[in-house]
Amino acid sequence: MKDFYQVLQVSPSATQEEIKKAFRRLALRYHPDKNSSPDAALHYQQIQEAWQTLKDRHTRAAYNYKRYINTPKQSRPVAGSIEELLQLSAAFQRKIGGLDPFRADLDLISFEAADLLSPAHLELALNNKPASDLFLEQILSSLTVLPFPMLDSLLPKLSKLAENDAAAAARLKDFVRQARIGYFWSRYKIVLALAVAAVFCLLLLLVR
Fold first, then answer.
1. Residue 107 lies in a domain
2. What's the pTM?
């Protein structure tokens, strides 16, 4: 599988703006009209292919998923006991806690969380009720970095951990509420600030 991030010489956690800048820089360098090297045309074709895939959020996410599932399985450990599962979720929590939320590869975090919430892991947790509460808490703590829309595919799995447990269900409900509020605020805070400023200016004009 082609590594389009390598083609564009960017990190998988690169922002869309960074990907755009890398594409423009490399496209200019390898454009056949500007580069007579025998390999320039092939490089330019690969750069265009990488750009077409990574420039759009949806096609990039689909590519990231294919890239993830093609990673060696030994790098995606599976727990054989509840103790191992808690070790995996704790390691995941520590990993997320050490990331820069503005530079994190959110798709990768989502895929790794889905692996942790696999049917086999959910069965382990549900058969060990005291430990399942800790498992749920570790996962929810890790997922605070994801924007609300990216939680959609994970919520049904998380809901299974809260079945027949009022406290766990309440914790999950609160997590979802906070995630929704945070997402709304991050998207519309600038608009709201401008609206408040406009109203304030209007009031100043009216009282003069």
1. yes
2. 0.75
Under 8 Å between Cβ of 47 and 41: no
Query: Does residue 29 lie within any of the structural domains?
Result: yes
pLDDT in tens, the chain (208 residues): 899 999 999 998 888 999 999 999 999 999 988 888 888 999 999 999 999 999 998 899 999 989 888 877 656 778 999 999 999 999 999 999 998 888 889 999 999 999 999 999 999 999 998 899 999 999 999 999 999 999 999 999 999 999 889 999 999 999 999 999 988 887 776 766 777 777 778 777 777 6
Give the pair of three-digit tokens for residue 143.
Answer: 């997922």
| CA 68 remoteness from chain centre | 13
Assess whether 81 and 53 both reside in one domain. no
Same domain, 102 and 56: no
Under 8 Å between Cβ of 98 and 88: no
* Domain of 41, in residue numbers: 4-69
Burial 47-68 (b: 16+ CB within 10 A, else e): beebbebbeeeeebeebbeebb
Q: How many domains, the chain?
A: 2
Dihedral in degrees, nearest 10, Cα atoms 105, 111, 112, 113: 110
The answer to whether residue 198 sits within a structural domain is no
Q: Would you say residue 96 lies in a domain? A: yes
